[in-house]
From TrEMBL, chain A:
Taxonomic path: Eukaryota, Metazoa, Ecdysozoa, Arthropoda, Hexapoda
EC number: 2.3.1.50
Record field: catalytic activity: L-serine + hexadecanoyl-CoA + H(+) = 3-oxosphinganine + CO2 + CoA
Family, as annotated: Belongs to the class-II pyridoxal-phosphate-dependent aminotransferase family.
One Pfam family linked to the record: Aminotran_1_2
Membrane keyword on record: yes
Record's GO cellular component terms: membrane; serine palmitoyltransferase complex
Name of protein: serine C-palmitoyltransferase
SUPFAM superfamilies membership: PLP-dependent transferases (SSF53383)
GO biological process: ceramide biosynthetic process; sphingosine biosynthetic process
Gene3D superfamilies: Aspartate Aminotransferase, domain 1, Type I PLP-dependent aspartate aminotransferase-like (Major domain)
One term of GO molecular function: pyridoxal phosphate binding
Cofactor(s), by name: pyridoxal 5'-phosphate
Keywords: Acyltransferase, Membrane, Pyridoxal phosphate, Transferase, Transmembrane, Transmembrane helix
UniProtKB/TrEMBL annotation, chain B:
Cofactor: pyridoxal 5'-phosphate
Pathway: Lipid metabolism; sphingolipid metabolism; Sphingolipid metabolism
Keywords for this protein: Acyltransferase, Lipid metabolism, Membrane, Pyridoxal phosphate, Sphingolipid metabolism, Transferase, Transmembrane, Transmembrane helix
Swiss-Prot/TrEMBL GO biological process terms: ceramide biosynthetic process; sphingosine biosynthetic process
Domain Aminotransferase class I/classII large residues, every copy: 99-458
Protein's UniProt keywords contain Coiled coil: no
GO cellular component, as recorded: endoplasmic reticulum; membrane
Protein name stated in the entry: Serine palmitoyltransferase 1
GO MF term (any one): pyridoxal phosphate binding
Stated family: Belongs to the class-II pyridoxal-phosphate-dependent aminotransferase family.
Length: 539, 470
């Protein structure tokens, strides 16, 4: 019933929303909506945000010649791969004792992994033998046979860590988090060996759920032992066939898996494109399900900070759309919790959106909290529903005590409950590092994607082979970064991703930037045609 | 010139063709043409409808969403059963402040006894911190992960192992890495929920056979073989899988692995074996059901197991040949897209493996206790014991109640009462969306450290409570 009232009170602004391009409203309409809409303040604020934040996000297009070369380079690699396959026996294991069976693997996939991916295979899955803090220690390995196999040399290399999701620098081997975690092992042991619904709940889990709810200022929260599973094992219980999911095209694999398991209809909108999302919703409601019935409910699923794009979701506009049509929002804050907002509470904090306007707040503890696991926070009725229906709550093992304690201590530090301003210092340091690093990169002339306040910074290198070249060159200069190429990104958009951390110092960033500047000339990474800021960037 | 002359000629030829052709041909072609046009228009106009802006607004105005979630009754057991555990979990467990004999949690081997595991885990925090802050691909591979994988492969006498950070996601990711939409999976109907979800994610066709019923399985395989003969082209592209558990979590029964292996070879199936319960519990050195039944491990294509039960850590792993297992490193969703296992939990698993290798007598002890429990627990007045004698997981079913809801209520009451009397047992929790809802039971786990006195005490408590409640 509550929903019906809601939809009706929103009819007036709804019409306007459809007709006006860009989703902007004329002043007259704003006055109208002020009279009819109880969320008037939000709407005016939203318009302000739109103009401010759109200019802060950038997705510069590649020069045409680069685009052509990228495709050409990729197909060249494929052709050489096919020729290679004709002449050289692959050095891989084969299936034994299964004669007459249908082959287990798809042939194109096999070809791609053997003859294209293998060339740059050394850039991923690199083992480390230290804490993933501001620096990390790589375990050196060499390949004697062009990527078919690897051998460890026994040596190690210390590198500046621009690859781990250690946004607030809580990946530490000492300090309050580590100490408390150790105490929790002494008190509770390693694991609980049972699911939450049975006998897997201890006082730490209860405390963490209460603290998480308090952190966001919502009624309740529930925590799970794995971030990936939080999406994959809860979305199916929230959705059923007949529900519509409007999902961002760049959403994470765990969301896509959860949706696949749910049986709901999925419609994808262009990345962070609010206009397209609104169109999808309008058309979907208007045309209903395939069988002619109206949709049961509509859930908009998006991430706070997109881990491959570095963009920040346009939350205020989406909240407005959600209210207009009576949809619900599922916000995955895996990369934004802790890392954005002046209190570290994620994108709601960043935009000043009321967290209660987000129906389902989801996130992980892997990144900013330096631990593992995930949470869902929201209204009491939502969390009660999950306690009764969540797959993970019923069947999967509960969170390990040390992991729970690490989150508790780091969350308390972020909230300032430890009596120091350590948390605030870390949040500010990360924000400063982010702005500085992004601005300096722009000055250097490389193309970066995303929002200027996003600590995930993808630098576009386009060509598949350049991903490998950059990662390898940076490693020789003691900088560890992550590369991403097809199929994780479109063929066109090979990229290098930097993840900033509060643990990084200005000197470390300056060193990284000077190296990027240098190799940018050597490897030809300075694609940007935007005017450059000639003045030195302030830290 | 040529064109001008030829066009009237073409028309006359067309005229001839149309009038000479039999009427049914014209009719057929016309209807085909109409069909094509209809399909094209139908596709463009969004389900045969085209709405004007006004109509759309009208529909949107009237559309009412269902509430996000259904309201859950306050008396729902999930909200009521809030037992809180305190302190370490070993032979005893403290539930709601009462020290109970532990027959509820899955730490069968009682590794709490070995302080080395905790010590090593603590040292691990000193070296690596708590979290790994990244997936395996992006600097989340810590050297302890590699060590654990190597050790597990060696322990199971297989070529390669791959470690996941959560047991549920292990098998649920491994299955869809191999099984695709066009494939067929034969699975036991009592498989645990994680496997069910893995099968759902694969979107393969799935055929369930009756629990441990080899005749039923063979019948279904023969039916499939017949269907294949009718469509050999399709059959030549369809992969077939057989998915079973070593010891079934939901029934405590052991699978007839030898017969399964025979059927695997006869019908060209690939066999996936989930050893969530059987790894580290049965077999002379804890290798699981292949060791116990003396089946060559190479006959099984993939073994998945949990590190959350006998190993008493968090995580899961798959072992098998290079050819099979390597594939998961790029296709196992829970492996590629999730943060890796926190190093301290990896180290705890390594330390547990050390104990497995150094003291294989613990498996014998566990099996002895399991058999003793099996002997004693057969004689309840109101409860019936099911499960293999060697299994560390056993189920007690109500003898006289079949209704799921009612039995669930009674069993929860029994479990709660037992806990008050100093014995921790649980009424196994299942969600209503289970494919084949398992019969409700008290799930009993066996701990290696239980003495004969403990077992008879436990028997007395359960007998007394169940008699008064059921």
């Amino acid at each position: 019933m509550k929903n019906r009232k809601f939809v009706n009170s929103d009819i007036e602004p709804k019409k306007n929303g459809i007709h006006h391009t860009n989703g902007y409203r004329s002043s007259e309409n704003i006055i109208k909506s002020k009279l009819t809409n109880e969320h008037q303040d939000n709407n005016v604020a939203t318009d302000k945000y739109k103009s401010i934040h759109d200019s802060k996000e950038s997705f510069e297009e590649a020069p045409l010649i680069t685009a052509c070369l990228t495709y050409f380079g990729f197909y060249l690699l494929m052709i050489i791969g096919y020729i290679n396959q004709l002449f050289f026996e692959p050095k891989v294991a084969t299936e034994k004792n299964r004669d007459g069976y249908v082959p287990l693997f798809d042939s194109f996939e096999r070809f791609y992994l053997r003859y294209v991916y293998r060339r740059v295979k050394d850039c991923w899955n690199r083992p480390i033998c230290s804490c993933p803090a501001d620096t990390l220690v790589l375990k050196d390995r060499i390949t004697p046979d062009f990527g078919w196999s690897f051998e460890f040399t026994g040596t190690t290399t210390k590198c500046l860590n621009l690859g781990s999701y250690n946004y607030l620098g809580f990946a530490q081997t000492s300090g309050p988090c580590a100490e408390d975690s150790i105490k929790s092992i002494e008190k509770y042991g390693i694991a609980t060996c049972n699911a939450r619904r049975e006998l897997g709940t201890n006082a730490l889990h209860i405390e963490l759920e209460e603290l998480t709810a308090k952190f966001f200022g919502v009624e309740d929260a529930i925590v799970f032992g794995m971030g990936f599973a939080t999406n994959a094992l809860n979305l199916p219980s929230l959705l059923s066939p007949g529900c519509l999911v409007v999902s961002d095209e760049k959403n994470h694999a765990s969301i896509i898996l959860g949706l696949r398991l749910s049986g709901a209809t999925i419609k994808v909108y262009k990345h962070n494109n609010v206009k397209h999302m609104e169109k999808v919703i309008v058309d979907s409601i208007a045309y209903g399900q395939k069988n002619g019935k109206p949709w049961k409910k509509i859930l908009i699923i998006l991430e706070g900070v997109f881990s491959m794009e570095g963009s920040i979701v346009k939350l205020p506009q989406i909240v407005e759309i959600k209210k207009k049509y009576g949809a619900y929002i599922y916000l995955d804050e895996a990369h934004s919790i802790g890392a954005t907002g002046s209190h570290g509470r994620g994108v709601t904090d960043f935009y000043g959106v009321d967290p209660k306007d987000i129906d389902i707040l989801m996130g992980t503890f892997t990144k900013s909290f330096g631990s593992a696991g995930g949470y869902i926070a929201g209204s009491k009725s939502l969390i009660n529903f999950l306690r009764a229906n969540s797959h993970a709550h019923c069947y999967a093992s509960s969170m390990a005590p040390a992991v729970t304690q690490q989150i508790l201590t780091s969350m308390k530090i972020i909230m300032g409950l430890d009596g120091t301003n350590e948390g605030k210092k870390r949040i500010d340091q990360l924000a400063r590092n982010t702005r500085y690093f992004r601005k300096r990169l722009a000055q250097i002339g490389v193309i970066t994607y995303g929002h200027e306040d996003s600590p995930v910074v993808p630098m576009l290198v386009y060509l598949f082979s350049k991903i490998g070249a950059v990662v390898r060159t940076l490693t020789t200069r003691n900088i560890a970064v992550v590369g991403a190429g097809f199929p994780a990104t479109p063929i066109m958009e090979g990229r290098i991703r930097f993840c900033l951390s509060a643990a990084h110092s200005k000197d470390q960033l300056d060193y990284a930037l000077s190296v990027i500047d240098e190799i940018g000339d050597k490897l030809g990474l300075k694609y940007s045609r935007k005017p450059k800021d000639p003045n030195p960037i302030e830290y | 010139m040529l064109q001008a002359e030829s066009s009237p000629y073409i028309f006359s030829v067309l005229y001839d063709i149309i009038f000479q052709a039999p009427t049914y041909v014209i009719f057929l072609e016309l209807s085909l043409l109409l069909l094509v046009i209809w399909i094209i228009i139908h596709k463009q106009s969004n389900g045969g409808k085209h709405l004007t802006q006004k109509q759309k607004e009208e529909i949107i105005k009237n559309w009412v969403s269902e509430p996000l979630v259904a309201e859950i009754d306050e008396n729902h057991p999930a909200l009521q059963n809030n037992h809180i555990v305190d302190g370490p979990i070993g032979k005893f467990i403290t539930v709601d402040g009462i020290k109970c004999l532990n027959m509820a949690t899955h730490n069968y081997l009682g590794l709490e006894e070995y302080p080395k595991i905790k010590e090593n885990a603590i040292n691990c925090i000193h070296k690596y911190g708590v979290g790994s802050c990244g997936p395996r691909g992006f600097y989340g591979t810590v050297d302890v992960h590699l060590e654990l994988e190597e050790r597990l492969a060696k322990f199971m006498d297989q070529e390669e192992a791959v470690v996941y950070s959560y047991a549920f996601s292990t098998v649920a990711s491994a299955i869809p890495a191999y099984c695709k939409r066009t494939d067929i999976i034969f699975a036991d109907e009592c498989i645990n929920f994680a496997i069910q979800k893995g099968i759902d994610a694969s979107r393969s066709k799935v055929v369930y056979f009756k629990h441990n019923d080899m005749r039923d399985l063979e019948k279904k395989l023969q039916e499939q073989a017949k269907a294949d003969q009718k469509n050999p082209k399709k059959a030549a592209k369809t992969r077939r899988f057989l998915i079973v558990e070593g010891i079934y979590m939901n029934t405590g029964e052991m699978c007839p692995l030898r017969e399964l292996v025979e059927l695997r070879a006869k019908y060209k199936l690939r066999l996936f074996l989930d050893e969530t319960v059987s790894f580290g519990t049965i077999g002379k050195s804890g290798h699981g059901i292949t060791e116990l039944l003396c089946v060559d491990i190479k006959e099984v294509d993939l073994i998945s197991a949990s590190l959350e039960n006998a190993v008493e850590s968090i995580g899961g792993f798959c072992v098998g040949s290079h050819f099979i297992v390597e594939h998961q490193r790029l296709s196992g969703l829970g492996y590629c897209f999730s943060a890796s296992q926190p190093p301290l939990l990896t180290q705890a698993a390594i330390s547990a493996l050390d104990i497995f290798e150094q003291e294989p007598r613990i498996f014998e002890q566990l099996n002895d206790v399991a058999e003793k429990v099996d002997e004693q627990f057969r004689y309840f007045t109101k409860l019936e014991l099911k499960g293999h004698p060697l299994s560390p997981v056993k189920h007690l079913y109500l003898k006289h109640v079949d209704d799921l809801e009612e039995s669930e209520k009674i069993l929860r009451k029994i479990a709660d009462e037992c806990m008050k009397k100093g014995l921790a047992v649980v009424a196994a929790e299942y969600l209503p969306i289970e494919k084949f809802p398992p019969k409700r039971s008290l799930r009993i786990t066996v701990n290696r450290l239980l003495t004969a006195d403990d077992i008879s005490n436990a028997y007395k408590i359960i007998e007394e409570v169940s008699k008064s409640i059921a």
